[in-house]
Design a protein that fits this description.
42% of the residues lie in helices and 20% in strands. By secondary structure, the protein is an alpha/beta fold. A five-stranded mixed sheet has the order 6-5-4-7-10, sandwiched between helices. It has a five-stranded mixed sheet with strand order 13-12-11-14-15, covered by helices on one side. A hairpin with a 2-residue loop joins strand 12 (220-226) and strand 13 (229-230).
Length: 400
């Protein structure tokens, strides 16, 4: 079925069919008269195209519009049973997976499934077999899966299908391997950008046209919605805020540069700062954890904050101040309606958010920041897999 809903007719009608589907994706449902008015096409033409889409099972009549009198017009929308989309978030030692129907409603969600993905073609083939098995166990017919979306950390070129965190070879993109094995359309994306789109479509976004999403996890990433569109940049690598050379701390970043924002405003930075303070003899409930296990994880730090451990709260507040200073610059630059804070460290809630807001007030221009809201992710850990579902649907429809 992929792309049949667009390419079933001549060029002009294909564009019109795409416009009708796009309207339903964005607004959920509408009447033929409203569709005609919005896309600037006659009612008979829209009626004919809607009829074709109904015959093909793409859209359906969902009710009648209430009116003050006269004949009540029919309301149409996407048929949720027309097909499904699978979104997969790939981490070093686990994956999370969401399945949405044609309308974008979540049908299934599985979080933190143990699976280690390696930088080999055989590993990605094994991942595909693993996904097929899980999709079948969840009760879905794989022939009804219209597209898969995968998100990975690091640099991902969604146009070429290369993921440089899992680089196989010059002649073999990760996307090609996945597409061949799954026998369906596949799209790959950077994790922060997928999370951004998930929040924009299904989460904290509320019809805003300019949105920044900060993914504060072990590293630091960003996604951007500019004038209602997901921003990619020339090579598909926009949003690398973690490697903005803001700090004068002589810390070497994982990228090999010195003074990247990520070295002072991320989970890895929180871990380093905490370990330094513990080495100085500072007291924390994590001292016992370190002595017992020899290591402290980011999850340990987050749990300690929730238990109101003074030292870990101090560390998170320091992270918040540094991040807020950088965010002040972004607000001055982009003047967004909304900034969304997501990623693992968002679980520390106000201990992170309050210093962020304080630093934004201190360092950004009042005339610029007064119209910017700063919120936490609404979808939480689900926003990556859900975002991949939404992206694969939009890309299949040609909406991006």
């Amino acid at each position: 079925m992929p792309n049949n809903f667009i390419q079933n007719s001549d060029g002009k009608n294909s564009v019109l069919r795409q416009a009708i589907i796009a309207k339903f994706v964005k607004e959920g449902s509408d009447s033929i008269a409203d569709i005609s008015r919005e896309i600037g096409v006659s009612i008979p033409t829209v009626t004919k195209l809607v009829g074709e889409l109904i015959d093909e099972g793409i859209i359906e009549e969902i009710g009648k519009l209430g009116t003050s009198g006269g004949r009540r017009p029919s309301i149409y929308g996407l048929n949720p049973r027309a097909g499904y989309f699978v979104g997969v978030e790939v981490r070093a030692h686990h994956i999370s997976m969401a399945i949405t129907d044609f309308k974008g409603e979540i049908c299934d969600y599985q979080e933190d499934i143990p699976f280690a993905v390696e930088k080999t073609e055989s590993s990605f083939k094994a991942l595909c077999d693993f996904l097929k098995d899980n999709i079948g166990k969840a009760g879905f017919d794989r022939s009804k899966i219209l597209a898969y979306g995968f998100n990975f950390s690091g640099r991902v070129n969604s146009e070429t299908g290369y993921c440089f965190s899992y680089f196989i070879s010059e002649g073999r993109a990760v996307c090609d391997i996945l597409r061949d094995e799954l026998d369906a359309e596949v799209y790959v994306e950077n994790d922060s950008r997928a999370m951004t789109y998930g929040e924009y479509i299904c989460g904290a976004g509320n019809n805003e046209k300019n949105v920044l999403f900060l993914n504060v996890t072990w590293g630091l990433g960003m996604g951007m919605i500019i004038d209602g569109k997901l921003s990619y940049g020339k090579s598909g690598f926009s949003g690398e805020i973690g490697h903005f050379p803001l700090l004068n701390n002589d810390q070497i970043c994982q990228c090999g540069k010195i003074g990247c924002l990520e070295t002072g405003a991320s989970g890895s930075a929180a871990h380093r700062i905490l370990m330094e303070k513990l080495a100085e003899g500072r007291a924390s409930i994590l001292s016992e954890t370190l002595e017992k296990n020899g290591v402290i994880s980011l999850e340990d730090i987050i749990c300690a904050v929730k238990e109101e451990d003074v030292l870990t709260i101090e560390v998170i507040e320091e992270i918040g101040r540094t991040l807020g200073r950088a965010l002040a610059g972004l607000i001055n630059l982009f003047n967004p309606e909304l900034v969304i804070i997501g990623g693992k460290l968002s679980a520390t809630k106000d201990y992170l958010l309050l210093p962020i807001k304080s630093a934004v007030q201190k360092h950004s221009l009042n005339l610029v920041n007064k119209d910017t809201s700063i919120k936490f992710s609404k979808l939480g850990k689900k926003c990556g897999p859900i975002g991949s579902c939404m992206l694969s649907r939009s890309k299949l429809f040609g909406l991006l």
